[in-house]
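Appendix B. One record, verbatim.
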Amino acid sequence: MAPTESQVLDALRPIVDPDFGRSIVDLGFVKNLRIDGGRVAFDIELTTPACPIKAEFEREARERVASLPGVDAVEVRMTAQTRGRAAPSGPEAPVLPGVRNLVAVASGKGGVGKSTTSVNLALALAGTGARVGLMDCDVYGPSLPLLLGVQGRPRTEQRRILPLEAQGLRVMSMGFFLTDSSPVIWRGPMVHGLIRQFLTDVAWGELDYLVLDLPPGTGDAALTLTQQAPLSGAVIVTTANDLSLVDARKALSMFEKVNVPVLGIVENMAWFTPPDLPDRRYYLFGRGGGRRVAEELGIPFLGEVPIDPRVVEEGDRGRPIVLAAPDSEAARAFSGIAGKIARQLAVLSEKQPPLADANITWVS
């Protein structure tokens, strides 16, 4: 005898999403349940394609349903709807209407690897199947063209600037508009105007995530973004030494004052392991500073990224470590951090009104 729909759902009910702490059945993740005699098929629709345990969900769901009497075959299809803020359109639409999540990557000071972190996090998110954009907000020292190996002047279409495509990302940077090595000498209002133009005049299209690589500090560009863009959350990048941590606290304070959720702290360049001593770790900037500050301030600690010479070498060639050496410890760290960020954004979105979602599908 074929199983009933209620029997299948009861078999799946013990599977709990760890981010929400509830059953995938109660959360409404089980979709399109079909029963044809002894054949059962259904979708499991996750809140982000970056879910690290989607393979476990699929395996457990398949095993639980296959154990029901009368079941001969089980087909499980894993899909995702990227959650985010509502995306209205029309003449009264807000800034970036087609972008579901805006994530600011910031640091209190320069030299901590913020741009490298931004690029690799964006690529890690894109690697899960999400549609991702990357906006270089550092007017005075744009670095994304070099890190992504992309050059050229963006075209315009119907009075909109078209972002360049690089490594599967939609990218916009002041660097695309500079023709020589002359410094950018602009006052605050000009910086404000350019950032505003990147937010309103660039045809970003439909994106699941737009990563904003902020300049270091809490100056004009950072303040403009917090005032003009509907930020979903911010990530603070630091190293473990006290000076960087002091400045990281300042960046955190800025986001708190403008009511932007701080998704967590990333400790970059956490340690170095010599190639000939794979069991050794040398903590060149101190040990555990990022985790300690996160605990003191009551915000998540997203993870540590080790020093790897290839991060610099491949970055200078336009091949970030996530692409150049995906199995390296640094690349795995960036991918893990990106997954945590995506899941936090999904949980935050549950506290917001109904959303315009984007379907991303895997077929298993």
